[in-house]
């Protein structure tokens, strides 16, 4: 059994909003990142971005269809500063950064990366809980991954939606724990696991 830590959408234009609002989600994600690295657990960063001209943004897609003509368009391309991983969680050279084209992390080559790592279990942290985290957890469960969601390393702009997902929805498909609980389990076991 091989576990991988997925850090979803911790990019300047998304996670930065939570930091500005006083959320400590980035600090919690940083502790999860440190724990994973110390335990030898592979880390995969996932960010959302589009090619120049937004060929992936179909007009029929309610969430992304109008992005090419929106004021945020210049900030959503692959090379834009807003789509880069935040400095506080900077990937190391050997840590993959996957670019997705939708909310869920599997709208990318993530599956290929996870197979290359031999991952059977995923530990998920990200922003936002109702977007990237929800979509990724659902897809990962359907693909039969063992799942852990790090509750305090996830955040959403709607606190009630965040609470309902963590307390009522995710426990049907994943273990939901805090970063400290997960990290202490890693320390106690002395071996990488979910």
Automatic annotation (TrEMBL):
Sorted alphabetically, which keywords does the UniProt record give?
Answer: Hydrolase
Keyword Phosphoprotein (UniProt): no
State a single Gene Ontology molecular function.
hydrolase activity
Classification via InterPro entries: Isochorismatase-like_dom, Isochorismatase-like_hydrls, Isochorismatase-like_sf
The protein's enzyme class: hydrolase
Answer yes or no on keyword Hydrolase. Answer: yes
Residues annotated as domain Isochorismatase-like: 3-180
Q: What is its EC number?
A: 3.-.-.-
Matches recorded under PANTHER family: ISOCHORISMATASE HYDROLASE, PEROXYUREIDOACRYLATE/UREIDOACRYLATE AMIDOHYDROLASE-RELATED
Q: What is this protein called?
A: Isochorismatase family protein YecD
Species of provenance: Microbacterium azadirachtae
């Amino acid at each position: 059994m091989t576990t991988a830590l997925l850090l979803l959408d911790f990019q300047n234009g998304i996670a930065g909003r939570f930091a500005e609002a006083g959320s400590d989600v980035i600090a919690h994600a940083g502790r999860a990142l440190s724990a994973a690295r110390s335990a030898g657990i592979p880390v995969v960063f996932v960010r959302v971005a589009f090619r120049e001209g937004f060929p992936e943004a179909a007009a029929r897609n309610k969430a992304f269809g109008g992005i090419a003509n929106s004021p945020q368009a210049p900030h959503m391309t692959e090379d834009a500063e807003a789509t880069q991983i935040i400095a506080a969680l900077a990937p190391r050279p050997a840590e993959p950064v996957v670019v997705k084209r939708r909310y869920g992390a599997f709208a990318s080559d993530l599956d290929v990366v996870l197979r290359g790592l031999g991952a059977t279990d995923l530990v998920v942290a990200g922003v936002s809980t109702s977007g990237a985290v929800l979509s990724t957890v659902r897809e990962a469960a359907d693909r039969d991954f063992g799942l852990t969601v790090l509750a305090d390393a996830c955040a959403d702009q709607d606190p009630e939606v965040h609470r309902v997902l963590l307390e009522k929805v995710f426990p049907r498909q994943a273990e939901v724990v805090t970063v400290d609980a997960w990290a202490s389990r890693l320390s106690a076991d002395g071996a990488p696991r979910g």
